[in-house]
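Sequence in, structure out. Go.
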Amino acid sequence: MFKTALFSILSLNLTACAATATDNSAPIVAIVPEGFESVVSQLHYSPAVRAGDFIYLAGVVAGLPQDEQGNLVPASDENLERSFDNAFQAIAYVLAAAGASWDDVVDMTSYHTDLPGQIGVMARVKDRYVTEPYPAWTAIDIDRLFPDNGIAEIKVVVYAPQ
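Output:
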């Protein structure tokens, strides 16, 4: 009897999940801010996608500046700060195009080519944009990024009911 009752509950739950998963009332919409058209055309991706009440942003790369010869400028705290600030501004631009802001961010993941050397500067810059209640944040140390001057990539998820 217990097995039969358990099976009935599982069947009802699976049916409810299947109905939710196939619900087409919340279509997926690509968000392409002005100025992103050429990179979307070249790389075939969306800078952000709205799926129901959530907006998922593609990662934004913080890159070290290059000199006139194309050589990377050394990773000083000043250069790191400028690179992170540019990335946070770019994220704010995509968020605005999606009808959201940093206040709507619920999750942030950052990928770092030198986590110990970058995390302090990243946290300082983040605090200019992110306020309470703070989003969940995961920071991951990685080997390398695209493009070659990339030092970190920041990806966010937004909750913004329509």
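Check: The chain is about 40% helix and 25% strand. The longest strand covers residues 150-159.
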